[in-house]
Design brief:
With about 220 residues, the protein is α/β, with parallel strands linked by helices. About 55% of the residues lie in helices and about 10% in strands.
Length: about 220
Amino acid sequence: MRNTHVFLLLFFLFLFVNPLQAQQIYLENKIIPKNIENEALRALEYFPKLYDTPIEFKFKKKIKKATMQAQPKIGSLLNRKENRKYVIYLSESIQIDDEDFTISDIPSDVLVGWICHELGHIMDYQERSNLGMIIFGAKYLFSSKSIKRVERTADMHAISQGTGEYILKKKNFILENPLISETYKERIRKLYISPDEVMSLLSEERIEDDYKFLEASSN
Protein backbone atom coordinates (compact mmCIF):
# COMPACT_ATOMS: atom_id res chain seq x y z
CA MET A 1 0.00 0.00 0.00
CA ARG A 2 2.82 2.37 0.90
CA ASN A 3 4.48 1.76 -2.47
CA THR A 4 1.18 2.63 -4.18
CA HIS A 5 0.99 5.93 -2.32
CA VAL A 6 4.57 6.77 -3.29
CA PHE A 7 3.84 5.97 -6.93
CA LEU A 8 0.73 8.17 -6.97
CA LEU A 9 2.62 11.00 -5.31
CA LEU A 10 5.42 10.83 -7.88
CA PHE A 11 2.90 10.66 -10.72
CA PHE A 12 1.05 13.79 -9.63
CA LEU A 13 4.34 15.60 -9.04
CA PHE A 14 5.30 14.72 -12.60
CA LEU A 15 2.05 16.21 -13.94
CA PHE A 16 2.44 19.32 -11.84
CA VAL A 17 6.10 20.00 -12.57
CA ASN A 18 6.09 18.93 -16.20
CA PRO A 19 2.50 19.21 -17.53
CA LEU A 20 3.44 19.53 -21.22
CA GLN A 21 4.95 16.07 -21.41
CA ALA A 22 1.71 14.66 -20.02
CA GLN A 23 -0.17 15.98 -23.05
CA GLN A 24 -0.27 14.22 -26.39
CA ILE A 25 -0.65 15.60 -29.89
CA TYR A 26 -4.09 14.51 -31.07
CA LEU A 27 -3.24 12.96 -34.43
CA GLU A 28 -6.81 12.06 -35.34
CA ASN A 29 -7.44 15.68 -36.34
CA LYS A 30 -4.07 16.27 -38.02
CA ILE A 31 -3.64 15.54 -41.73
CA ILE A 32 0.06 15.45 -42.61
CA PRO A 33 1.64 14.29 -45.91
CA LYS A 34 4.21 11.54 -45.36
CA ASN A 35 7.12 13.49 -46.84
CA ILE A 36 6.90 16.22 -44.17
CA GLU A 37 5.51 14.09 -41.31
CA ASN A 38 8.77 14.09 -39.33
CA GLU A 39 9.21 17.87 -39.53
CA ALA A 40 5.54 18.66 -38.87
CA LEU A 41 5.45 16.50 -35.72
CA ARG A 42 8.73 17.97 -34.48
CA ALA A 43 7.26 21.45 -34.87
CA LEU A 44 3.90 20.56 -33.31
CA GLU A 45 5.60 19.21 -30.18
CA TYR A 46 6.44 22.80 -29.22
CA PHE A 47 2.83 24.00 -29.48
CA PRO A 48 0.75 22.32 -26.74
CA LYS A 49 -2.07 24.85 -27.31
CA LEU A 50 -2.50 23.33 -30.78
CA TYR A 51 -2.41 19.65 -29.75
CA ASP A 52 -6.23 19.41 -30.02
CA THR A 53 -6.61 21.89 -32.90
CA PRO A 54 -7.65 20.40 -36.28
CA ILE A 55 -4.86 21.22 -38.74
CA GLU A 56 -4.36 19.95 -42.28
CA PHE A 57 -1.02 20.28 -44.07
CA LYS A 58 -1.71 20.44 -47.79
CA PHE A 59 0.50 20.88 -50.84
CA LYS A 60 -0.42 23.39 -53.55
CA LYS A 61 1.24 23.67 -56.92
CA LYS A 62 2.34 27.22 -56.16
CA ILE A 63 1.66 29.90 -53.56
CA LYS A 64 2.13 33.46 -54.72
CA LYS A 65 4.98 35.23 -52.87
CA ALA A 66 5.14 32.55 -50.18
CA THR A 67 6.50 29.12 -49.34
CA MET A 68 3.76 28.28 -46.85
CA GLN A 69 0.46 29.86 -45.87
CA ALA A 70 -1.68 29.23 -42.79
CA GLN A 71 -5.35 30.11 -42.72
CA PRO A 72 -8.67 29.00 -41.21
CA LYS A 73 -10.74 26.66 -43.32
CA ILE A 74 -13.45 28.83 -44.83
CA GLY A 75 -16.39 26.75 -43.59
CA SER A 76 -15.07 26.75 -40.03
CA LEU A 77 -15.30 30.55 -39.86
CA LEU A 78 -18.99 29.99 -39.20
CA ASN A 79 -18.04 28.20 -35.97
CA ARG A 80 -16.97 29.64 -32.65
CA LYS A 81 -13.26 30.49 -32.74
CA GLU A 82 -12.39 27.59 -30.42
CA ASN A 83 -13.97 25.18 -32.95
CA ARG A 84 -12.20 26.45 -36.06
CA LYS A 85 -10.21 24.18 -38.33
CA TYR A 86 -7.01 25.31 -40.03
CA VAL A 87 -4.97 24.48 -43.10
CA ILE A 88 -1.29 25.08 -43.75
CA TYR A 89 -0.59 25.17 -47.49
CA LEU A 90 2.91 24.23 -48.68
CA SER A 91 4.10 25.17 -52.13
CA GLU A 92 5.29 22.25 -54.26
CA SER A 93 7.39 24.63 -56.32
CA ILE A 94 9.07 27.53 -54.53
CA GLN A 95 10.17 30.30 -56.86
CA ILE A 96 12.25 33.12 -55.40
CA ASP A 97 13.20 35.55 -58.17
CA ASP A 98 14.61 33.33 -60.94
CA GLU A 99 15.50 30.40 -58.67
CA ASP A 100 13.27 27.35 -58.23
CA PHE A 101 13.26 25.29 -55.03
CA THR A 102 11.18 22.39 -53.76
CA ILE A 103 10.45 21.22 -50.23
CA SER A 104 13.11 18.52 -50.69
CA ASP A 105 15.72 21.26 -51.26
CA ILE A 106 15.11 22.69 -47.78
CA PRO A 107 17.15 21.21 -44.88
CA SER A 108 15.02 19.44 -42.27
CA ASP A 109 15.66 21.90 -39.41
CA VAL A 110 14.92 24.85 -41.71
CA LEU A 111 11.63 23.21 -42.73
CA VAL A 112 10.76 22.76 -39.04
CA GLY A 113 11.39 26.50 -38.56
CA TRP A 114 9.13 27.35 -41.50
CA ILE A 115 6.33 25.19 -40.07
CA CYS A 116 6.82 26.72 -36.60
CA HIS A 117 6.27 30.17 -38.09
CA GLU A 118 2.99 29.02 -39.66
CA LEU A 119 1.89 27.45 -36.36
CA GLY A 120 2.64 30.85 -34.83
CA HIS A 121 0.10 32.32 -37.25
CA ILE A 122 -2.49 29.79 -36.10
CA MET A 123 -1.87 30.74 -32.47
CA ASP A 124 -2.50 34.35 -33.49
CA TYR A 125 -5.72 33.41 -35.34
CA GLN A 126 -7.04 31.51 -32.33
CA GLU A 127 -7.16 34.76 -30.36
CA ARG A 128 -9.26 36.58 -32.99
CA SER A 129 -13.02 36.57 -33.34
CA ASN A 130 -14.60 35.74 -36.71
CA LEU A 131 -15.20 39.45 -37.34
CA GLY A 132 -11.64 40.10 -36.23
CA MET A 133 -10.39 37.58 -38.81
CA ILE A 134 -12.27 39.39 -41.59
CA ILE A 135 -10.78 42.74 -40.56
CA PHE A 136 -7.38 41.08 -40.20
CA GLY A 137 -7.59 39.71 -43.76
CA ALA A 138 -8.51 43.08 -45.24
CA LYS A 139 -5.65 44.83 -43.45
CA TYR A 140 -3.18 42.17 -44.52
CA LEU A 141 -4.13 42.63 -48.18
CA PHE A 142 -3.86 46.41 -48.26
CA SER A 143 -1.41 47.49 -45.55
CA SER A 144 2.31 46.71 -45.51
CA LYS A 145 2.39 47.94 -41.92
CA SER A 146 -0.19 45.29 -41.00
CA ILE A 147 1.79 42.60 -42.85
CA LYS A 148 4.87 43.46 -40.81
CA ARG A 149 2.92 43.34 -37.53
CA VAL A 150 1.31 40.00 -38.42
CA GLU A 151 4.54 38.32 -39.54
CA ARG A 152 6.48 39.55 -36.52
CA THR A 153 3.67 38.41 -34.23
CA ALA A 154 3.78 34.92 -35.79
CA ASP A 155 7.53 34.82 -35.19
CA MET A 156 7.04 35.91 -31.58
CA HIS A 157 4.37 33.27 -30.98
CA ALA A 158 6.73 30.62 -32.36
CA ILE A 159 9.76 31.84 -30.39
CA SER A 160 7.69 32.01 -27.21
CA GLN A 161 7.08 28.25 -27.55
CA GLY A 162 10.81 27.51 -27.51
CA THR A 163 11.45 27.27 -31.26
CA GLY A 164 13.88 30.20 -31.53
CA GLU A 165 16.74 28.05 -32.85
CA TYR A 166 14.57 26.69 -35.66
CA ILE A 167 13.27 30.17 -36.55
CA LEU A 168 16.90 31.36 -36.63
CA LYS A 169 17.91 28.54 -38.98
CA LYS A 170 15.05 29.40 -41.31
CA LYS A 171 16.07 33.07 -41.46
CA ASN A 172 19.76 32.29 -42.00
CA PHE A 173 18.87 29.83 -44.76
CA ILE A 174 17.25 32.69 -46.67
CA LEU A 175 19.55 35.57 -45.78
CA GLU A 176 22.82 33.65 -46.28
CA ASN A 177 21.74 31.84 -49.46
CA PRO A 178 23.79 33.13 -52.44
CA LEU A 179 21.06 31.98 -54.86
CA ILE A 180 18.50 34.38 -53.37
CA SER A 181 18.60 38.01 -54.50
CA GLU A 182 19.13 41.03 -52.26
CA THR A 183 15.68 42.31 -53.24
CA TYR A 184 13.98 39.31 -51.68
CA LYS A 185 16.31 39.33 -48.68
CA GLU A 186 15.52 42.99 -48.07
CA ARG A 187 11.79 42.17 -48.01
CA ILE A 188 12.49 39.53 -45.35
CA ARG A 189 14.55 42.00 -43.32
CA LYS A 190 11.79 44.58 -43.55
CA LEU A 191 8.81 42.40 -42.57
CA TYR A 192 10.18 39.79 -40.18
CA ILE A 193 12.13 39.65 -36.94
CA SER A 194 15.85 39.70 -37.75
CA PRO A 195 18.33 36.98 -36.73
CA ASP A 196 19.98 39.48 -34.37
CA GLU A 197 16.63 40.14 -32.69
CA VAL A 198 16.04 36.40 -32.28
CA MET A 199 19.50 35.99 -30.73
CA SER A 200 18.86 38.93 -28.43
CA LEU A 201 15.51 37.50 -27.31
CA LEU A 202 17.07 34.13 -26.58
CA SER A 203 20.22 35.35 -24.85
CA GLU A 204 18.62 38.13 -22.77
CA GLU A 205 15.43 36.19 -22.00
CA ARG A 206 13.36 39.16 -23.13
CA ILE A 207 10.84 36.98 -24.94
CA GLU A 208 7.99 37.29 -22.42
CA ASP A 209 7.97 41.11 -22.30
CA ASP A 210 8.36 41.51 -26.08
CA TYR A 211 5.70 38.86 -26.69
CA LYS A 212 3.21 40.66 -24.45
CA PHE A 213 3.98 43.94 -26.21
CA LEU A 214 3.31 42.45 -29.64
CA GLU A 215 0.09 40.83 -28.41
CA ALA A 216 -1.14 44.22 -27.18
CA SER A 217 -0.16 46.00 -30.38
CA SER A 218 -1.94 43.42 -32.55
CA ASN A 219 -5.34 43.91 -30.85
